[in-house]
Amino acid sequence: MDKQKNLREMPIGRLLWSFSLPSIIAMVVNAIYNVVDRIFIGRFAGEEALAALTIAFPVMMIIFALATLIASGSSALMSIELGRKNSLKAGQIFGNAITMGVILTIAVVLILQWKMDAVLKLFGAEAGTLALAKSYLRIILGGFIFNMLAFVFNFTVRTEGQARLPMFAMILSALTNIVLDALFVIVFGWGVEGAAAATIIGQFLGFLFLLSFYLRKKSSIHLHREDFRLQGAIMKSILLTGMATFMGTVGNSLAIGFLNQRLSLYGGTQAITSMGAINSLFTLFFMPLMGLQQGMQPIVGFNHGAEQHDRVNGTMKLAMIWATAFSTFVFICLRLFPVTLLGLFIDPSSPTMITAVEGLNIFFMMLPIVGVNILGVSFFQATAQGTKALILSTLRQFLFLIPLLVILPPGLGLKGVWVSIPVADGLAILITALALLLDYRKRENSHKRQSGLQLESVGKIG
Q1: Does 307 map to a domain?
Q2: How many CB atoms lie within 10 A of CB 99?
Q3: 262: Cβ–Cβ under 8 A, 6 or more apart, which residues?
Q4: Can you give the residue range of the structural domain that contains 194?
Q5: Of 114, 178, 284, 352, whose CB neighbour count within 10 A is largest?
Q6: Which domain of life is it from (predicted)?
Q7: Cα-based distances in Å from 21 to 13, 171, 249
Q8: In this predicted model, what pLDDT tens digit does every residue of 232-255 receive, in sequence order?
Q9: Over the stretch 326-362, which tens digit does the pLDDT of each residue have?
């Protein structure tokens, strides 16, 4: 209960920091693992193996999207119910989320095992990369159930104010991955199969750590057998609320798959390898923003449920300031040290480095203001505005990026592929900023009307 009191009363700056810092640490550690994973693959298994992981990445994003569909949707609803002091309803949402996660896992594994070749070819796999990508993905699918449930627990534990536990779980998982990567890839020479095995073992340990929180009865939510029975209304609410995150991630996956195809067409394996290195850096520097987003969301959701609108606005404003400051700092570092950073994945003397530097400089052009889109979508999700969140999360990929990848490259070649990314980012950020401004004005006007009615009622009583 003290954790929930903090959500309601602690000063916004301290609260946002206390929630965001553990998430940021966890996400950065996880990103470091992903970067180290690609360093091991690129340096010890070869550029073709790194290209295979780049091909498999969109499929991994779809798997990630399905996990976050359930996790983000259920946690946002649970935050609101806890803000309303309705722990019974929160437990029903949690139980339904677990059941949905198990069913979804079984369906995904069966479908991908059945159509794996077709899916990987859709995302740009060729003769040299198809077998490697398949080997990696088959092992990942074997541990998908742990990934799914770990995601659900990661989000739901955070809604109860337990920001540190997900951090410890992700650190445990990431450190396990790094140690086993070194053993399996470098010492045993297992290549992409070793990297995949290290990943699922790490996910399993992270899952066990989070599960122990509930087994030790530390949660304020007490699950009952009937909570696991699916309820249509709860399922619908979880899916609608989580759909924004899901569609945004699926859109990214499809866009990256199409991007890989265009890179292959206009730049060959060098361009795809370059994208693998750029995407690794993006993952590393993007994770603190994701940590800030994860720290912000339960605060906004809880106080929205408690109808403390000033705290909702204050949290959002402060998160935007922090995100912009961090993104600007990273942007400057990328501009000053591109070869040094890309050299972690690519031999600096390789011809691929020239392609990678050009791509990196264009790819990150909108980085200083990208937080507007990330936090904006999360805000609408946290305040149960699922439709707005869904529209904003899919604009960049479906309305802007994919059409631009069709229009620009025929005239501009490989540069047109790279340029499509910041143009799509800029357009999506502009629309998200306008949506946030309109929502802010609407809520301010509503708050003023409610205050006026309350004063009028007091006057009549007097």
Answers
A1: yes
A2: 16
A3: 405, 409, 417
A4: 2-451
A5: 352
A6: Bacteria
A7: 12, 13, 23
A8: 999 999 998 888 778 877 777 778
A9: 999 999 999 999 898 888 878 888 888 888 899 999 9
